[in-house]
Amino acid sequence: MPPRSRPCLMGPLRVAPCRQPRSDLVMTILSTIPGAVPQPHSQLTRIERVLDYIHANLDQPLALAELAEQSCWSRWQLQRVFLHETGLTVAHYVRELKLSQAAEALLSGRQRVLDLALCYGFGSEVSFSRAFKQQFGCSPLAYRKRGLRLGLRTPLVRATLPQPMPARLVQVRIESQPGFILQGVKGQIRGLFAAAPDFQQTVPAIWRALRTAGGLPPGQERVGVVDVSGAGESLPYWAGSVMEEGASLPAGLAHLPVPAQTYAVLSHVGPVSQLGQTLNWFILHWLPSSGYRGVDGFELERYAPDFDGNQPDARMEYWLPVAPL
């Protein structure tokens, strides 16, 4: 059942020119350590050195031996620690960042595919197109023609949250979401940055009202929608699910058209009571340096059908509407 707390946010992301790529996206290490003066985690500190080097040299060939020197680990140790901390191999991480920057360049510039292939270290247009299709499911030209930011990946940065939370990796990505119709119930909340926030109490009450109305179809994703288009402190909040095309609206529920939008997507792992801390960092620290701007509209919360916000490994996604600067 969806959680006890729900904030709302706003923010951006950034594109780097091909010649000096610095990804317009950011994947984040959300890491906090108990204590007033936390000591840095040595593994993460070494990984950060490697990440800084990768991010500064994405337009160069990056050999594993070269990266190992930055970490003071052997190549074998670096590969295993990197995989443990990020869930990615070094080669996969470098490749997905290069391809994400190339994808952004396809949408925002007029470079030829061959020029982008050479800029990001691929030996030929053929090898670049093959790798691009593996990551994005279509050719570079098809991606450009579609004109949507889909599946863009982000670099890793370290973030320190205000209260102790388990160290973990969270990836911010950019996704274009088609419009849909939400069926559910509506209430009013005062969100994360209100003078007197009450979302900790009001959001669970709205989800309980939805359950009472029989509006939680079994096996279907749960979606929370925060309407931040107004100027007041009180925000409309919807709890519900996506209405299937051609379906009739169940009795006792209302519907909300949600337009197509580009989003920055943040995964939150942990009790939902800590979601506010994650989103606070996302808005105040990550977004201002991302190269995107927040736009007024609908912020989304997405939960699996069996979501339990009290569990330490609970996972959900917050979708923040953004547009490139």
Automatic annotation (TrEMBL):
UniProt xrefs under InterPro entries: AraC_E-bd (IPR010499), GyrI-like (IPR029442), Homeodomain-like_sf (IPR009057), HTH_AraC (IPR018060), HTH_AraC-typ_CS (IPR018062), MarA-like (IPR050959), Reg_factor_effector_dom_sf (IPR011256), Tscrpt_reg_AraC-type_HTH (IPR020449)
Keyword presence, Transcription: yes
Pfam families: GyrI-like, HTH_18
GO MF assignments: DNA binding
SMART domains, per the entry: AraC_E_bind, HTH_ARAC
Domain HTH araC/xylS-type intervals: 48-146
Keywords, sorted A to Z: DNA-binding, Transcription, Transcription regulation
Listed name of the protein: AraC family transcriptional regulator
Lineage: Bacteria, Pseudomonadati, Pseudomonadota, Gammaproteobacteria, Aeromonadales
